[in-house]
Write a structure and sequence with these properties.
This protein is an alpha/beta fold. The chain has helices at 35-47, 72-80, 84-103, 119-126, 154-162, 164-173, 179-184, 197-209, 213-225, 231-245, 249-259, and strands at residues 12-16, 19-24, 56-61, 108-111, 115-117, 129-132, 137-139, 176-178, 190-191.
Length: 269
């Protein structure tokens, strides 16, 4: 199935050129997730591994908010009454969404405004780049509802983005990280105005989509795989990865364009 034919039930999907946009679309509740939307998002990012017509992805929310996390009535209430096998199935499913985002080859750019909390903060965290607004509030609020901060990979990933001490503070307290703080700490790549954050994130996704997408996929893979490598292992892994990239037609195209004093036109192969 081509990306243009993809029609999810629990979020909006738009394909413009080589950029797909995922919009969480329950604005009246600040775009919370349900059991079904978790599963469909997980499956969508898994499917993107085979979507050759998508070269970059934007994730955003409708109505001035990104995502308020798991729906209190549709998820939190049922979890209280669930047995342990059901609970572990749920937590593994939510973690599988982050894993699918990490494993899909396309760079993911999050456009974040308003509330970005709980699972929404984890989706933002799992994106490759994050554009936010000054008025946005990012909260890993699990401690505020009696849960540990170790949710959907947060204890592994957040310290690598903003540092161990800062991550510990957010995960222990569940407090909100406001926009300028998120940029200063490195969670946001850029602050934008609310009315332009989606456009700027989409422009960056378009720039990435026009680049050497095979090489970008290799960069994404190595960024994640090298977490568990020594420096020596990483240097060798990168030597092999780069040698593979040197066999691509895009590498040859770039050389010919440079020799002709032209801008290269990449095709992703």
């Amino acid at each position: 199935m081509k990306a243009a034919d993809f029609s999810p039930r629990h979020f909006k999907w738009r394909l413009a050129g080589k950029v797909a946009t995922v919009t969480l679309d329950r604005p009246e509740r600040k775009n919370p997730l349900t059991f079904d939307s978790y599963a469909e998002l997980r499956d969508a990012f898994r499917w993107l591994k085979q979507a050759e017509d998508v070269k970059a992805v934007v994730v955003t929310g409708a109505g001035g908010n990104f995502c308020s996390g798991g729906d209190v009535h549709d998820i939190i209430g049922p979890l209280v009454a669930m047995d342990m096998p059901g609970l572990i199935r749920f937590t593994r499913m939510t973690g599988a969404l982050v894993q699918a985002m990490r494993e899909c080859p396309q760079p993911i750019v999050a456009a974040i405004d308003g509330v970005c909390a709980g699972a929404g903060a984890c989706i933002a965290m799992a994106s490759d780049l994050r554009y936010g607004t000054e008025r946005s509030k990012v909260a890993f609020l699990f401690a505020r509802v009696g849960l540990a901060g170790c949710d959907m990979g947060a204890c592994a990933m957040l310290p690598r983005i903003i540092g161990q001490g800062r991550a510990a503070e957010l995960l222990y307290t569940g407090r909100s990280m406001v926009g300028n703080e998120a940029e200063r700490w490195g969670f946001y790549n850029r602050l934008s105005a609310p009315e332009s954050v989606l456009d700027e994130a989409t422009a960056m996704a378009g720039q990435l989509a026009a680049g050497p997408s095979f090489a970008h996929a290799m960069t994404k893979t190595m960024l994640h795989q090298e977490w568990t490598m020594s420096i020596e292992q990483a240097i060798e892994a990168e030597a092999q990865a780069q040698a593979v990239c040197m066999t691509t037609k895009d590498f040859a195209r770039a050389y010919r364009a440079f020799a002709a004093k032209q801008q290269p036109v990449f095709e992703g192969n």
